[in-house]
Design a protein that fits this description.
Elements lengths: L4 E7 L5 H11 L2 H4 L3 E11 L7 E10 L4 E7 L2 H28 L15
Parallel strand pairs: 1-2
Antiparallel strand pairs: 2-3, 3-4
Length: 120
């Protein structure tokens, strides 16, 4: 990763080296989809629950030229949450890239209501 930056933070959770390496390894693949991604923030959190399984959530925030993309996923396993987050973020980036490409290829006529003087 040259200029790209991945910021990882945790709430109620200790960020181990293995967890950080897993996130960086998987998230760095997103930079290949679109070269306009500036920064990627990943927030991992843990919410203990007495009645149900413990809940691990992962929230991804992509800072890109244009509107930022924010996705959040929750499950009963942290690594599963990270994997689902990667899938959702990649889908969102590819969709945005595809829509921009379609928009770029569509030409439309411009209708100017006024008559323009001709220059001799």
């Amino acid at each position: 990763m040259n200029d790209n930056e991945i910021i990882i933070s945790g709430q109620n959770l200790e960020l181990t080296d293995a967890l950080k390496a897993s996130v960086v390894n998987k998230m760095s693949k997103l930079f290949t989809h679109d070269d306009r991604i500036i920064r990627l923030r990943v927030e991992l959190s843990y919410k203990p629950n007495k009645h149900h399984h413990n809940e691990f959530s992962a929230k991804g925030h992509i800072e890109i030229q244009g509107p930022d993309m924010i996705v959040s996923v929750a499950s009963d396993d942290m690594y599963k949450s990270i994997d689902e987050l990667i899938v959702k973020l990649a889908r969102k980036v590819r969709r945005r890239h595809r829509l921009e490409r379609i928009k770029r290829n569509k030409l439309h006529d411009v209708d100017i209501p006024a008559t323009l003087p001709k220059i001799a």
